[in-house]
Specification:
- The chain is mainly β and 258 residues long.
- It has one domain: Beta Barrel (Porin), CATH 2.40.160.
- The protein contains three helices and twelve strands; from the N terminus they run αααββββββββββββ.
- It has helices at 6-16, 20-25, 31-40, and strands at residues 44-55, 57-64, 69-90, 93-110, 121-139, 148-163, 170-171, 177-192, 197-209, 219-220, 225-227, 231-244.
- The strands form two sheets. It has an eight-stranded antiparallel β-barrel.
- It is elongated.
Length: 258
């Protein structure tokens, strides 16, 4: 089992942290009233994204062939696109719902640790994932008034894995579609282009239950399987275009202390 990456822990801490300075300057005096008010005002945004993705190991097989080596099944040459809607209910906090479609080739890669490629195999099949995600967002600076602000998110997701076709190697014995739960964190930078339009660059790390594990799952016909991870990691690298409804929030004026 892989240990969580240090930056995932750091992003969750950043997301949940609420500095004292932010409370005194950016947070509302009446939290419940102002959050409810945000849901009733045009403080929403819509966005589209596109980018590349990589998959972790679905399973490990071995020994294979006369060399007795090991090979891993994983995704390759992945790309994706998505749409979503979000709302900033505080100057530095928001929520968003996203649908993302990803697709990648299933390939075997030699896993002997010596740099060899003798067990590599391409074009085994193609796997698609349809992901619905709900996330909490935390900005380092006020989202609508800052020209540039880093942000982090944490959320839950549901994934429909779809196998493109049955082959001699990859078989949908549990059905061509598998539904799995998961979680994700992401880190990005938001750029303000004008009062309505913005852009984001972000990386999202998703931990999803493996569609090749379980009683109802995809299967690999050739070779003995020696490891089936419970979860598989999928990392998305995205370019996001954002459109904001309504007027930007203006920070409240501060009164100089005597």
């Amino acid at each position: 089992m892989q240990r969580p990456r240090w930056w995932i822990t750091a992003m969750i801490a950043l997301l949940l942290a609420t500095p004292v300075s932010a409370q005194t300057k950016d947070e509302p005096d009446d939290f419940v009233r102002d959050v409810l008010k945000a849901f009733l005002t045009p403080n929403y945004n819509v966005f589209i994204n596109t980018g590349m993705n990589t998959n972790g190991r679905f399973l490990l097989q071995g020994p294979i062939g006369p060399t007795g080596g090991e090979r891993s099944l994983q995704g390759n040459n992945g790309f994706g696109a998505g749409i979503g809607v979000g709302m900033d209910y505080l100057l530095r906090a928001g929520v968003r719902l996203t649908y993302t479609y990803n697709t990648s080739d299933l390939v075997f890669r030699t896993n002997n640790g010596d740099g060899s490629t003798n067990l590599n195999a391409d074009d085994l099949s193609r796997v698609h994932s349809n992901i619905l995600a709900a996330e909490l967002m935390r900005y380092m600076l006020p989202a609508r008034t800052s020209t540039v602000t880093p942000y982090a998110t944490v959320g839950l997701l549901g994934t429909w894995w779809v196998l493109d076709q049955q082959t001699d190697v990859i078989q949908p014995s549990g059905g061509s579609t598998q539904f799995r739960w998961g979680a994700l964190v992401s880190f990005g930078v938001q750029f303000k282009l004008n009062d309505k339009f913005g852009a984001r660059l972000e990386a999202a790390s998703q931990s999803i239950h493996n569609p090749f594990t379980g009683e109802h799952s995809f299967t690999v016909a050739n070779g003995p399987t020696i490891d089936e991870p419970t979860r598989v990691n999928q990392t998305d690298y995205r370019i996001v275009g954002v459109y904001h409804f309504g007027k930007k929030e203006t920070p409240p004026a501060t009164t100089a202390k005597k």
